[in-house]
Design brief:
Layout (H helix, E strand, L loop, with lengths): L9 E7 L5 E4 L2 E7 L1 H19 L4 E12 L8 E12 L2 E10 L2 E14 H12 L7
Length: about 140
């Protein structure tokens, strides 16, 4: 694992809200606004932008934590910007604070966690769990 980042470093990601991002459950649209689920997906991706630059051959990142506090709506056609701030790297786990805005409007805040692990150990862990054998990675 490479560690080129420091607390306070920032990565950003943005997209335009579409109907695919609406709050929809069991095939029913609840609200025609950006869903909390879509916010979580975007927050994880913003934090993963750090991870992608930290990985070395044979490594992968895996999510460990996601906290989303939804403050305001984002509507279809609006651009949401995710700003992930490198908070800490401890025991191969990166945590980021994330803020989501549409212009000046604060849409959400939260945190993400991703651990950098060996792809081989991760595959073995998944295989053991699928087979019903509890082992640790």
């Amino acid at each position: 694992m490479k560690s080129p980042f420091h607390p306070g470093d920032v990565k950003t990601y943005s997209f335009v809200v579409t109907a695919a991002d609406f709050a929809t459950m069991e095939g029913h649209t609840v609200h025609e606004v950006l869903s909390t689920f879509a916010l979580g997906r975007g927050m994880e991706w913003a934090g993963r932008l750090f991870v992608l630059e930290m990985l070395e051959a044979g490594e992968e990142g895996i999510g460990t934590m996601l906290q989303v506090e939804h403050h305001a709506p984002a509507f279809a056609g609006e651009t949401v910007e995710f700003r992930a701030t490198f908070a800490a790297l401890e025991n191969r786990e990166l945590t980021c604070a994330v803020e989501v805005r549409v212009g000046e409007r604060l849409v959400a805040t939260g945190r993400t966690g991703q651990r950098i692990v060996s792809r081989e150990k991760l595959a073995a862990r998944f295989a053991a769990l699928r087979a019903g054998s509890p082992t640790s990675a």
